Amino acid sequence: MIAAAVQLIILMGVFTILEGRWPSSRAHKWWRRPLLVDLCSWIVHPLSVSAGIALAVTSTTAVSAVFPNSGFWLTFFMMRMRVTALPLLAQMAIALIIADLLAYWIHRAYHRFPLLWAFHIVHHTSEELDWLSTSRLHPVSQVLNTMVAGVVLLSMGLPVIAVVAANVFIGAAALLVHANVNWTFGPFRHLLVSPLFHQWHHARVDGDAHQDEVGNFGAIFSIWDRLFGTWSLPSANRPARFGVENAPSATIAGLVLHPLRACVHFFRVRNAPPTKLLQRRKPAE
Q1: Residue 179, helix vs strand vs coil
Q2: Residue 221: helix, strand or coil by DSSP?
Q3: pLDDT tens digits, residue range 157-213?
Q4: Which of 37, 146, 51, 157 is nearest to 94 (CA)?
Q5: Cis-peptide into 87, omega within 30 deg
């Protein structure tokens, strides 16, 4: 807890300088309201990541003990041994690339499926974007994200330290790309996610547009968006507005409980008799 507090104070100083020197929006300051929500999220975030890694280690160990050392699994274990024998820096590089690719597809899934979006909408409730917006994530989704990626990496034979390092790099990149700065990264924008690139991911989408159409799902590397057709940079300027239509209340209780309410509503509507659905859709006379 003390380390997290010291880290937060240092980052407050660093990003106050960066966002003051190269602001994307001069009117916005990171200490805007609702500050309490993001500070609480900042405290919970490392706990969620740690829980996800711990669950990944436990799950991988349990599953590995079940599979026989023959046939396909023997070949798989031989490949794992080769990965295990690599130098640590090579293992970290592999972990970072694969974790970032997984983060891209997990991020797309959150925008595609309604039940997942009920969790991810929490992150998109920020109506102004800055480095502290990074931490506004639902703890349940963060645990699951970390666990899924961790299981894949550990199953490949990568060590826990490589998984931790990948999470640290992705987390540090997330702070930068959410920052209220006007950086585009110049020619490196074709490889890396820049703050402007990610600002367009958070651009407000109203009306009939669907959330999976926003694009720019990469975490560190923008090449995934290039490869899979989700690259979107409509302008060299920042979007006019951030946030989402019909967002939940930007309070701690409102954001934490929103996915539960959305899940209850989803299954209630799904299991409702057809006559009731028709009645709901019938226009008022």
Answers
A1: coil
A2: strand
A3: 999 999 999 999 999 999 999 999 999 999 999 999 999 999 999 998 776 555 657
A4: 157
A5: no
Of 220, 217, 190, residue with least CA distance to 202: 217
Single out the residue of 195, 142, 158 nearest to residue 19, CA to CA. 195
- Cα 37–Cα 43–Cα 46 angle in degrees, nearest 5: 130
> Tens digit of pLDDT for each residue in 231-242?
988 888 899 899
The pTM of the full predicted model, rounded to 2 decimals, is 0.87
CA distances from 70 to 73, 82, 92 (A): 6, 17, 29
Write out the two tokens for 112.
Answer: 């595609």
Assign 79 a pLDDT band (cuts: 50, 70, 90).
confident
Tokens of 88: 């640590």
The helix/strand/coil state of 23 is strand
**What are the contacts of 94-98 at 24+ separation with CB within 8 A?**
94/156, 94/158, 94/162, 95/153, 95/158, 95/162, 95/163, 95/165, 95/166, 96/165, 96/166, 96/169, 96/170, 96/220, 97/221, 98/152, 98/153, 98/156, 98/166
Higher pLDDT, 68 or 215: 215
How far apart CA 229 and CA 92 sit, in angstroms, is 27
Choice among 8-12, 63-67, 123-127 with the minimum mean pLDDT: 63-67
pLDDT for res 206? 73
Chain center to CA of 283:
39
67: tokens are 């599979």
Please provide the average confidence, as pLDDT, over all residues in the chain: 87
Q: Is 142 exposed, middle or buried (0-12, 13-18, 19+ CB in 10 A)?
A: buried
**Residue that the structure tokens 């104070």 belong to:** 9
